[in-house]
Amino acid sequence: MTLINSVLALGAAAFTIPLVIHLFYRSRFKTVSWGAMHLLEPVVRINRRRLQWTQLLLLLMRCLLPILLAFCLARPVLTHFQALPGDAPQSLVIVVDDTLSMSARDESGLSRIDRLRNELTALLSRLSRRDEIVWIQTSQIDRLPATMGIEDAIQRVKSLQNTNGPFDVAQTIRTAVAAAEQASHPQRRVLIISDFQDANFDAASSEMLSAFAVELRDNPASPTIQFWNVGADLESLSNVSVDSVEALSPAIVPNRQSQFAARVRNASDQMLNDLRVTWSVDGQEQPSRSISLPARSTALTNFVHSISEAGTHEVAVAVEFADALVEDNRRSIAVEAIEEIEVLLADGQPSKASLGSETDFLAIALSPFAFAQQDQVDTVKATVVRVDQLSEQMRNQPPDILMLANVAPLDAALQKRIADFVFAGGSLVLFDGENLNQADDRSNVDRDPPALVLPAEIGKIVGDRISGKDHPMRIGAVNSKYQPWQRLAVGNQRPLSGVDVYAYRKLTLNGRSSEAEKESSTVLLSMNNGDPLVVSARRGRGRIVQFAIPADASWSSLPLRRVYLPMMQQLVLDLIGSSKLMTVMTGQPMVVPLNEFAGETLASGDTPGDHRRIPPLHQRRFTVQPPNSSEFAVEVIETDKEIVWKQTSAPGVYRFRQFAKPSEAEVNMTSTVRVAEITAAESRLRAIAPAQLSALAERVSATVYERADEIQSAEQTRRFGREIWRGLLVALLIAMILEMVIQQVSTPKRLPPKPPSAGPNDPLRVGELA
């Protein structure tokens, strides 16, 4: 314990004054004996001990009063026998949770982020100008922390925006402690401000935190860690949110009806009727509709729309409802409307006979209008080439989808080209046939390194294409999770049950692939006995679909059925629709291929109607405009084939533009968009349980607070100790009151004098007697 005003503690010596007075009067006490004294001896003997204790207690109280008063004025501080830092400069690492859930509002309308701004600004204002602030936001945890002074930190707090997704608590604590270790001052403190949503905790984070807790215990210079929980009452808040938006159509084609669906969640305890839902395309609102949501449930709302132009478009849905978190009442996705899909068909057994080639049925199914010589435009442009023309075609004009029909093993150079095509985002479809019998092993396509592993290993042929016609085999159910083929016959799980299969290749999910590749292999269609008939797998950024039957009618009657045309078209639309990731979660990189900028600009001296040209890459520049921000230049070199934008912490529409610069005046060639959205977990407003948060804090020796004044008080105690003068003042007042009570109790009560009694000669008495 230390004293702030130690000189005033000398006033405690004033306790000698009542002691001296007591001794002085006791020395003047004299005993006078008189005759009737012996009559009082029993009374004195009974009361002497009580009187002695009373007088001693009264003396102690009178001695204690000046001691308590002196120590109150000296202001004692408890230090727990430690050297306190006092007003020494400190380094304060502030970690701010800037996720969407921090916008949740309480009943008064005050959001978590507004409360944080107000209280944290006041907290920073009380710090010394010598203190150092290290600023970290959870959305920028991978960036270098910013070091600044008090005024700059206050400006950061005032301009703080929270529109980001969940973060990893363990990684955040580790980053904050590492930043504290690099700070300038020896006095270091870490303050983590968050609403501690349950979405930020998982098993991996818990294991990582346990390992880091051991490192903290072994580090004697570890900083003080404090948790400021600003979301203690999040469980009492109700919320309505749009959890997801998806395109149900495999691909978006201009001037064709496309179907979209959104899932709306009601996280409140009351039934919500007639919620207004509004869809919009590229900012143009469509007629609204109403839905009703039971308490604690979700509902789907569908939207059918025809997009007129090719390119990338934003499709959004919004729900009008005043709730705790209005920011999640709108969600959008980016979709690409494809004007024409380039499909290259490699025919492994060409023929001049009608429908005699391997790809004849396939070409008709993909481009029916072109085959019928009608004026309508096909979505798919199918080009058929021989195997010896495949290499040149792939080099000069790479397609969107490559289909190999009964193609024998290819040379190493072509295999590598195909593998590169798939890993770069292309789609490969393989149809079986008798030519594959020449291959000893067709489980992979060589690419050094790595090999392009097919979804399944090729085995022996089951059945006979000639004798099997007398006893055909049947196709089983379509994979219920593969939506494109679920539309072949609505309500029928076996739309292909009437197809006759005479023979098929035995496919075994590839045993040579890695665990990740095995997990990505999916059986889309199987035989009645369970053998895979169509297998799909993702490789790199592309996909491979492997059929166990040929594309023609030699092994089955599938190409002769009416279901064959929509089946192949839905497959192509699904492959082209899944090749690009148009919508990402915040924090994930956006990838924009350069060939997506399909617009052109007039060359110098050209006039409308003349030919157009695209300037070379070094005469073009690219920019990106994040939501609610200005444009940024994107550096692209000659070897780049795509733009990769990693700064996607803000949700919304990111617009990528390409500019030509062949002359002084730049002309906007074209633009495309991507959308970043926040995971729906941020909208559930489900805070971590208090017991779990306490256990988390205990692991890293942290303390949990719910208000800024609690942090200020705890920091004052940690730096300067705990002052106890208030308790001493209360004790002083109590002692003064006790001294008066004891004084009153110890003083003998004096009885009032009795009036003299009337004698016989008293007139009043005489009259009374009369």
UniProtKB/TrEMBL annotation:
It holds the Pfam family BatA. Residues 748-770 are annotated as: Disordered. The chain crosses the membrane at residues 6-25, 56-78. Keywords: Membrane, Transmembrane, Transmembrane helix. InterPro entries: Aerotolerance_reg_N, Class_I_gatase-like, Double_TM_dom, Ig-like_fold, vWFA_dom_sf. It comes from the Bacteria. The keyword Transmembrane applies. Gene3D superfamilies: 3.40.50.880, Immunoglobulins (2.60.40.10), von Willebrand factor, type A domain (3.40.50.410). Residues 6-76 form the Aerotolerance regulator N-terminal domain. NCBIfam families: two_anch. PANTHER family: BLL2463 PROTEIN. This is Aerotolerance regulator N-terminal domain-containing protein.
